[in-house]
Write a structure and sequence with these properties.
Shape: globular
Number of helices: 10
Order of helices and strands: EEEEHEEEHHEEHEHHEEHHHEEEEH
Structural class: alpha+beta
Number of strands: 16
Largest sheet: 7 strands, mixed
Amino acid sequence: MASPLLSSPALLSMIRHKPELISPSQATPHELKPLSDLDDQEGLHFRFPFLFFYPNSPPIGGREDPVRVVKEALGKALVYYYPQYQRIREGPNGKLVVDCTAEGILFVEADADISLEELGDSVRPPCGFVDEVLCDVAGSGGIIGCPLLLVQVTRLKCGGFILGIRVSHAISDTFGLRQFLKAAAELARGAHAPPRLPVWQREILCARDPPRATCRHPEFEDVIDDARSAPMTLDTKNMVHRSLPHHLVSKSSTYEVLTACLWKCHTIALEIDPDDVVRLTCVINARGQRGLGVPPGYYGNTSVYATVLSKAGHLCSSPLGYAVELVKKAKEMVSEEYVRSSIDVLVLKGRPKYTTVWNFLVADATKVGFEEADFGWGKPAYGSVAGALPLISFYVKNRTRKGEEGIVVPIMLPERVMRRFLEELAKMTDEGTAGDDDYGEDSTMIRSCL
């Protein structure tokens, strides 16, 4: 049977040491570095939580203390990524800048009286002990004037460790954090310099002069706040719906089918008026987009929102292929001009937050490559986003104890809505709620012939 979800400090006995500030191992420049217009949008004014669980696999040369190894590696990496340990200030017209005054990142050392094996499946989202393994000391909330990076290293009694990170989303996205962690990991294993030197150049993704909206961007219309709700995780394998047309089966990616299926179930579960307009917003990384000129080594935000609309009633009553086609349309929207238009709209509208009204917002983190962050203990047993956020779900890689590859989808919905969501998901997939004991009662398998 799956291990019980640890959700109480009583189940996870922790000893936290006093927080400290870590600075680079060498002197770095003192200067002001403006963020891009993608970086400082209101929707990114939060700390992104990540967890990495490392097994007991001591580095070559003998047993090492993971706290010391990670701390020293971060100090070395910050020489190259020195804006990461500074503070964000607000300039004229709300423009954010990084004030490089050598104030340091926050670091906490901790010990837990538990092994990685005992944690079992609870390492995957939704991790029930996030607050114990992610530091968030008083006074560190928000992003203005606060540490941009909060790091906690928790030793496990088995010799493994947990690396918990909160990073200001305004300074970096998932790919930027991966690049930073990979650099630190390479330095921890004896490299003399990062495998790829970081590039700032945030001006590349600033608005044109004058800014001009050339595309429609419904993701920035009718902004309201969503209520917070309870988390749940779906375990998925490659999937396809039984009624999906053959031409879509052969031409659709797992992401497209999975997103379409979840969006439709999400809409049905919310019991939205059939005449209301619902949104699907896909977070699309534009790093490889031709013409943008984003260089290798760039570690700022490069993702834009691609939003498609549908009448709720039409989405709910149509075959899944209809939703799949809309997902494809969202992905195809993102051209160089669309990215430039998105940045311009952010400036023209005062850097607004994306809309949440009847909006299902998803981001794919399965190809980020967090498994490359090897500090000498091997690849993490799990390493990615800590779980769902109130307004967005992430797709993350997962490997079962049988070695099967899949996708984990943390999602947050009110309890009654969640029940309806699972019922609809069971109707639309080849199997309903899984009975496989590699998964908890809160998991649903979505199987496929893709």
